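Have a close read of this protein, sequence plus structure tokens, and explain what the tokens say about the fold. Thanks in advance:
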Amino acid sequence: MAATGAAGVGGYYAWKGRDCISGQAEACEKERSALKARSGQIESTLGQVQGSLKTSREELEALRKWKGDAAKRMQTFRDMSAKLQKMVDAGKLGVRVRDGRLVMRLPQDVLFPSGVANLSREGELALMEVAVILRQFPDRRFMVAGHTDNQPVKEAYKDNWELSMARALVVTRFLVEAKMNAKNIVAAGYGEHDPVASNATPDGRKENRRIEIILLPDLSELPTLPEDMATQAGQPAEATPPKK
């Protein structure tokens, strides 16, 4: 009986083997194809997972850098504000954070007589105090921005843009003469187009007539332009420095 059973089992596998060897092996071929496809899917999924892990690590490092830069920037804000507090208390200067930037605001009445771009004596003294403080931050850059209200200007200037730019240049040159690095200062004139109050009232117009000294972000604090955007803009992507 055992011999008969063994012979029966051997005959069954021989019959199945003939099925695969003969033209009836389509099922075997389909199974092999299915296994191959599944293997490819697994490899693809593994690649995606590995790519996601790499992206997550890069995003984590970017987040850590951003938090570090933000903390450093906030400390600069605090240090600079503390040094300027005496002028703030005396009403010569206003300090605030606007659009994520530290802004030092000097009213026009402190710096200039009405409608002209010549510094008053009081304005010179105030700017000298500011320059002494800002010189303590030699690695930081600043923008001197002139602003006006929306009232027509005198004949000496074509429009409020020209007046605001003239005043910004006067302040910038004075700061450079007070030993601030000229490479770290830029002048800009906004005219009447960046108000902080309504021009409908005398008090609002007074608020809008001002000089602002704005702490500019350090270049290292700015996000890096993605390589694909740099290429589209016609600029070669910055080469990655070699590891030391």
